[in-house]
Amino acid sequence: MSQTVNPDRLFEAFPAPSYRGNQEQALRDIRDAFAAGNDVVLVRAPTGSGKSLLARAVAGCARTVEDADPSEATGAYYTTPQVSQLDDVAADDLLADLNVIRGKSNYTCILPEERNTPVNQAPCVRERGYDCSVKHRCPYFSDRAIASNREIAAMTLAYFMQTAGSEVFRKRDVVVIDEAHGLAEWAEMYATIQLGPRTVPFWDDLRVPQIDGIERAVRYAENLEQTCTRRKDDLLSQESLSPREVRERDRLQELIGELDWFVSDYRDPQSPTTWLVDQSEPHAGDTGDGTDDDTDEARGGPLTIKPMNPEKYLAHTVWDRGNKFALLSATILNKAAFCRQVGLDPEAVALVDVGHTFPVENRPLYDVTQGKMTYEHRDETTPDIARTIVRLMQRHPDEKGLIHAHSYDIQERLAELLCDFGVGDRIRVHDRDGRDADLEEWKASDDPDVFLSVKMEEALDLKGDLCRWQVLCKAPYLNTGDSRVAHRLEEGQWAWYYRTALRTIIQACGRVVRAPDDHGATYLADSSLLDLFDRARTDTPDWFSAQVDRMTRPDLPAFDPQAARAGSGTGRSTNGETNARRRGRSGSRPHRSGRSSNSATSSSSSSNSSRSSSSPLADVWETDGS
């Protein structure tokens, strides 16, 4: 048998013409870690380290077809949970040999009469035995053929996991996972089963009992799987299907796989997975007394079946897919804890730390805390944070700012208060469906607008003047009402709880400083953030501890909304009434936060707006079978 990954090729596989920062030393450390016999190397590389270039170098060390026996795995996979990260890879000339493949819904059929039809709804999937005359030119199948036959195939983590067991995307020698810090959480999310009116095509036809425990959930899942199989077989027996029926068939196939995995995993005495089940109240239309019409059995509502630490699932979808692995992230904060979560043996895992090359004075933290933003204190603290934001707008009159609101409730409260203070013409907001378009519009604007964001702490590149300051409005603790979180805290896993929040903060701080000569300020408005730094101190990287240790309380100007508007552009409505202000009056959210010379704004939302392929967060799990 020939040797697997060849770490000596790391330097020749590095795609850039020269090294910057600590890249050369990082390659030496990665080479030594693989040469020492480690199967997995964690590469903890902060923002600006050039992780994608390091990832390409590791992928280039994979065993080649020329060096391998026919039965041996060759080549490499590059995968990332973030769609935007994959977009960046596809657009980078230095990474041109990473052959990108996406889910079918991202491609459009090229048949003349189907130009607006996604490939996952094209005639080839609607009609049985359809012989496509242009399949050899189909963008999806062309990309798939190229990616499956070239040395490096690049895809989202969702697509990678979904193709486990595929004859097309078989085991390879090397797997590189970028932004790997949330691997366990992504796996838990992907393996979670949602059973309700939005996910089960015939939900209204079902008789859903009250589920009083996991055993009852397993029995119900077995019965539901049989029902789904019968309905899917009925659809497969038809000569042709409508687009709606295609979507139902594909969803049924996914659901059958999800239910089968849950039942088999639960029945496996060797599986380490713990399963939890949550059930909502019955939806409107159920019998008024809460019982079934034909039996005395109580009716139940939608179900969520959740795995915790799905090691077996990760073994099938990730660890069985390669011989050697490189996992890259700025925020793998605790090696042992990370390995436990994802089912790795720490003894077979090496950690490579890449030093931060950005001057600490270019990435300052400032204490502007106004109190706690816990639910019971939010009403009191939010107005003070809004006033602080106005003062920060005064401090940065000509610079764009980003507010991490943490939730849509906090975002709405802040938008209303800022409009009431009279600074609404410098404020932009987004909603769930229009977040991508609103973000891109704000980034493209030359005005020093302030963007009230929700869940944009990761996968956002705001280099240079795209953003010079940001505010963290709330410590990003996980919701203790979530059954998985509650279960872990009942077991005393408080270190995990604090570490997860710290990871989000570090990710957020990296949004506005993207290069050694870049600079951006981060302001902390929730006093719980300071407490978190103390609680998670032992898991804090040295380079971030340096930021925390240098933190000061700035001398802000006195509250003056008129001065906060000083940097506002002139391309506004004449009465200064923005979407944020209108939303504050009506309580409704606009599709867009952008503004034109009149007070109206156009909405360009569509049925696919919430799954835009350009989104930092959307469409991560929107994949289709290979």
From TrEMBL:
Q: Does the keyword Iron-sulfur apply?
A: yes
One MF term in GO for this entry? Answer: metal ion binding
- Per the record, the coiled-coil ranges are none
| UniProt region (Disordered), positions on chain | 272-307, 554-626
Q: Where is the composition biased (Basic residues)?
A: 581-594
Among Gene3D superfamilies, the record links this protein to: P-loop containing nucleotide triphosphate hydrolases (3.40.50.300)
Asked whether the UniProt record includes Iron among its keywords, one would answer yes
Keywords (A to Z) from UniProt: ATP-binding, DNA-binding, Helicase, Hydrolase, Iron, Iron-sulfur, Isomerase, Metal-binding, Nucleotide-binding
User: Could you tell me which PROSITE patterns the record lists for this protein?
Assistant: HELICASE_ATP_BIND_2
Q: Which Pfam family, just one, is annotated for this protein?
A: Helicase_C_2
Composition-biased stretches (Low complexity): 595-615
Which GO biological-process labels does this protein carry? nucleobase-containing compound metabolic process
InterPro entries registered for this protein in UniProt: ATP-dep_Helicase_C, DinG/Rad3-like, Helic_SF1/SF2_ATP-bd_DinG/Rad3, Helicase_ATP-bd, P-loop_NTPase, RAD3-like_helicase_DEAD
The signal peptide here is: none
Q: Where is the Helicase ATP-binding domain?
A: 9-236
Identify this protein by name. Helicase c2
What organism does this protein naturally occur in? Natrialba aegyptia DSM 13077
